[in-house]
Amino acid sequence: MRILQALRSLILTFFRKILFLWVRTDVSGNSREALGLDPDKPVCYVLQYSSMSSRLVLEQEVLRGNLPGAEASLPVKNGPVHSFFFLYRRIGGLFQKRQTPVPTSEFKALVRFGLEHPETDVQIVPVSLFWGRSPDKEKSLVKLLLSDTWSVAGRLQKLLIIMLHGRNTYVQFNQPLSLKQVIEEYRHSEERANRKLARILRTHFRRVRQAVLGPDLSHRRTLVEGLVRTQAVKEAIRETARQDDIPPEKVRAKAYKYADEIAASMSIVTIRFLEVVLSWLWNRIYNGIAVNNIRVAKEVAQDNAVVYVPCHRSHIDYLLLSYVLYKNGLMPPHIAAGINLNMPIVGPILRRGGAFFMRRSFKDNPLYATVFNEYMHVMFTRGYSVEYFVEGGRSRTGRMLQPRPGMLAMTVRSFLRNHRKPIVFVPVYVGYEKVMEGRSYLGELRGKKKQKESVFGLAKTVRKLSNSFGRVAVNFGEAIPLEDVLNETHPSWRNEAFDAEYRPSWLPDAVDRLATRVAANINASVAVNPIGMTATVLLGTDRLAMDESQLIRLMDQYANLLKAFPYADTVTMPEGSGKDWVAYCETMGLVTRQPQKLGDIIALEGSNAILMTYYRNNIQHLFALPSLIASLFENKDSLQRDKIVFLASVAYPYFQSELFLKYDPDEVEGVINQWIDLMIEQGLMVEEDGRIYRPEEGTDAMLRLRVLSRFIIQTLERYHIAIGILRKYGSGRISAAELEEQSTLLAERMSILFGLNAPEFFDKSLFRNFIANMQKNGVITTDDNGLLSYTEGLDEVAEDARLVLSVEKRQAIQQVTMLGA
């Protein structure tokens, strides 16, 4: 018997060696740590359908991952001969009609053992295997034959699939199931225990397959034609024909043209081509890609239509996210791309990679708007994953931009029309140590006109590929189920009927709530890196320079501050220490070293001083509250704790709106008190009898507190400029638009006069947001003539600013305000 087993094992090993002369695999989860296996319990792997080739791949990956062997006998009696089993076996041969698969005898034997030996548990590890990963395209027999799809392949078809797609095989090991827990309630019914375990495993394999392959795709031409035949588009065609006095046939042709312009044409060949090209590209320009919390995307992709909502820092964002998802076993999403990217050569490639194109504005084109809305509705109801940027455009300052409601509103309205398929938003933070467009952003912030995308511009970008752009991080944030947001906004929404045109009165509130949560969850997934930490500290100094040892010490201390009170579980911190970070920034050419006998000086010089504000702004929100607390001691030796909490709480809504902080206003007082306690614990402040004192001048603690306050001080200065101008004109004397314009001009003037190097200091949109928030909070109101009025409460806010701003800064702002009056 042993001789036969040894011979059998030898034959299988030989076949496995032969198979892997051709097959190449991409594997996920094949480690003891990833699976969380209990070493004291036996392990049994399960594949969905019986297949010799699948078994050989499983054994190979178990060996590579140093996992408990799939070839070894399972240490339980009457169970499978080996520590793996197939859930189903096929009925019917090569020339016989294939019938519905049935559970294998090994599966039944394992369940029987579990019922007879309740004291022994078995860890069942489901393993999914895909020979190539292609979404189906209806009416495409070639794709059905040559790709791993939703259908069960026969032996001949499997042979062709392995030959054609064996070098693109994906294997996914998933979290183990406890046999004991699954069958516990059916101790007296083997048949029901069999059905329950089979149902759980069947559901699991179906969910993984949907996440990896995506839902079935219609042929693009069929999809485009179908859009024009929808009731909403038909009505829009009739209305446009009536209003513009155009024959309906011409309007229908225009609608078809719009649909053809919009629709993606995802091609697995293109996706694989892009995978190869992008792998080469990332290795050339980046020192590595760190992917964190990918499990969020894997979990929600199995039962939901997923909307990926990344921050937008670079054109690299959407390429990088699709690449990361594909490499981790998830179907790349359909990506909303600006029509400006639909240029020769590039546009068709992007379209086949999943991009669908949209015009920047279609407010005055109801026909186009209807076609686009219907296209989005098809995406969601069929369960596609979709990606779009809520910010609309790329951030030139490194901050999260105010979300634009358009795409979010379309998504919500589509879900209200048909909510059988749940929609879940997955925020994604993409963090660069050196953004590729950094220098062009610098020019735009200095007033240079934004250049339109073109093939020639792309050619110029290619020349940068010899440069190193450091590491990049892709962090997945906490998922947001859309129905949760709707339940919070309008609990009875399920009881209402919605059509394509209906816009309920509560819809804007739901979209605003969703937008705020998406932006906050993106920021809560930030990747702190050496560039951001170095930029934050150096930009907090007077001369943008610091003794190297002092800089290292401060960075370590501020990093410890973030670690002691983590902003969110999804925030990631850089490896190493301040010493490593300074050296790294130097190799990246972002800081300069000035040798000096008493100790080298690290400084920011030239355009790098402005460019580094971009990387400081990436992580500014993490330091917002402790920096705000520290700033209260700029002009005061001590304050009552209650006064600190009150002032910080009053300022918080404005910081929250601008920096998308995650804490609700009703909980922020507790968070502020926690920060005060931590800052006292770390020696940044001293408390005596309920009064908080700053450290003595000239001490290291006072330096830490002062530099910390400067992380956020320019934001407070900007607020004070707007308030100063409003008070200068007087109540009822200036409109919101005029206040925004005057504030922007004076902030720009002040940045020149006083050497402020942060471009966002005179960002018009930030002033607009601050004015809108003062109106929202009732600090100012708008009269019938559109002029801003205020009460004595605004004067109190201005007086409180005396505690925050130093004498020099107050005088500087007052001087600039008077010059602009």
Describe the protein's architecture and organization.
- The chain is α/β, with parallel strands linked by helices and 821 residues long.
- The strands form five sheets. Strands 8, 9, 10, 11, 12, 13, 14 and 15 form an eight-stranded mixed beta sheet that branches.
- Helix 10 (231-244) runs antiparallel to helix 16, helix 20 crosses helix 21 (507-523) and helix 30 (713-729) crosses helix 34 (807-820).
- It is globular, with a radius of gyration of 31 Å.
- One of its GO terms (cellular component) is plasma membrane.
- InterPro entries: GPAT/DHAPAT, GPAT/DHAPAT_C, GPAT/DHAPAT_LPLAT, GPAT_PlsB, Plipid/glycerol_acylTrfase.
- Pfam families: Acyltransferase, GPAT_C.
Question: What is the oligomer described by this structure?
Answer: single chain
Mean pLDDT: 85
Principal-axes geometry comes out as globular
**Beta-strand percent range:** 5-15%
CATH topology of the largest domain: Glycerol-3-phosphate (1)-acyltransferase
User: What distance lies between the first and last C-alpha atoms, to the nearest angstrom?
Assistant: 99 Å
- Spans of at least 5 consecutive residues with low confidence: 93-99, 135-146
Q: In the CATH classification, which architecture of the largest domain applies?
A: 3-Layer(aba) Sandwich
